[in-house]
Amino acid sequence: MSITELAKLQAPVAYAEVRQRVNTVRALFGIVLVAMAITGIIQGMTPARYVIFAAAYLTGDGIWRRTRGTSALPMLLTDTVVFCAISMVKGNPSLGLAVTFVYIVTGALLLLPLVRAASAIAAALVIGIPVVIISPLGDPIISSTRYVIFDIVVMTLMSLLIGSLLYGAVQALHAATLRHRDALAAERRAVELKDEFVSMVSHEFRTPLTSIAGFSETLRANWPDLTPEEISEFLVIMRQEAQHLSNLVEDILVIPRIEAGRLRLRPQEFDLAAEIAATSRLVFAGASKDVNTYIPSGVIVNADRGRVGQILRNLFDNARKYGGDSVKLDGEAGTDLYTITVADNGPGIPDGDWERIFEHFEQVGKGDSRQAEGVGLGLPIARQLARAMGGDVWYEPRFPTGAAFKFSLRLAGVISEGDRAEAELEEPTEV
User: Fold this and answer.
1) Distance from first CA to last CA of the chain, Å, rounded?
2) 291 three-class SS
3) What separation in angstroms does the CA of 124 have from each of 76, 83, 100?
4) 261: which of 61, 120, 157, 356 lies 20 to 30 Å off by Cα?
């Protein structure tokens, strides 16, 4: 592996994930050293007055780096210089410098890419080896009980610093493992959703295409022998199947537009009852259902009429496929919104699936258990379109059985919060 490739290798642990914990320990380490140095000064230990400066710097540096910095290299180099300086001033590096080197190597290998880790370790050796050589090894001052206690405290604190570094690294690696596992699960789920989507869309496309192809071939082969009524019936069926295909394509295409924020809405004021009646006739034509509408004329809403029709079509189509033999369309006016209820006497939705049915490609019955056609897009699209126009779509159970889907729209003359905020920002026009 080349040097360039080595330089591109990432550190095993991201410094940001352990930065706060490690630097907190460093700051506490510095505070303890400051306290020890002050005690030494009081007791007449001359080197202590120099240690206090290094310890104070370590404390301030630890506090500053708790929330700053993107690389562990400056921290490790700072600690190398500080701890080597303390060892030099103390007059004997003893085991404290060895523990310091272990800390530098551990931190470099965990928090730095391989090339930078090697540079940090090399810098520690360049700085530390002269300290070992120049320091008066075997100086009688090391035999003093006070300096032995100092060494023990320093080594204990260094061990705590190494322990905090390793503990943070273990936690970071565990979190990274969990994120990797979640990412793999999400990837598998995405593949499953793709396969399910392709399967369902293929089935949905095949049915109307087969019908159109069959009736068109029948018309081509038997046109002279068919009566005008039969020809008209075949053409009506072909038109309905073509409209079904168009609706399916529109449902599929609207998802990326909504998620990308590129869905263009053309709000206008119109009579809601007329739109509901037209969509109801289209969806429930030929269905053996008792459909009752209790929405009065004159309810004027302000919305994109085409998108409202798309929402109604999806809700009505859902009731047609799953809603038993009776469908009731009702409405209720609120202060700002008008709520349409599409209720049926079908089996309803299980308690745990009330929100899941509004997710993409989700259906109560899936795979071999599916009882009707569909790709699991109607309800998610209806909700997102309604929310884009200032309303919403949600589910409520009926008693003792059945389902009720609620759909709210902004009444005409109602100003949305966004429109009101924009209006307040506009400066008045001078007359």
Assistant:
1) 76
2) strand
3) 9, 10, 9
4) 356
Confidence category of residue 9, pLDDT binned at 50, 70, 90? low
Residues 141-162 have a mean pLDDT of: 70
Q: For residue 421, is pLDDT > 60?
A: no
User: Does one domain contain both 273 and 230?
Assistant: no
Rg (CA), the chain: 37
403 DSSP β-pair partners: 344, 397
Residue 128 CB partners (closer than 8 Å, separation 6+): 80, 84, 93, 97, 100, 101
Least confident of 85-94, 165-174, 374-383, 422-431: 422-431
Model pLDDT for residues 344-361, shown as the tens digit of each residue: 988 888 887 888 888 766
The C-alpha angle 32, 35, 37, rounded to 5 degrees, equals 110
Q: Which residue has the higher pLDDT, 6 or 392?
A: 392
Do 155 and 28 lie in a common domain? yes
Tell me if 363 sits within 8 A of 374, measured CB to CB.
Answer: yes
Which of 235, 259, 283 corresponds to the end of one domain? Answer: 259
Which tops the pLDDT comparison, 18 or 95?
Answer: 18
Give the ranges where 223-302 is alpha helix by DSSP (H): 228-259, 272-284
Domain identity same for 273 and 178: no
What is the Cα–Cα distance from 112 to 319, expressed in whole angstroms? 60
In this prediction, residue 145 carries a pLDDT of 64
Backbone angles phi, psi at 331, to 5 degrees: -145, 155
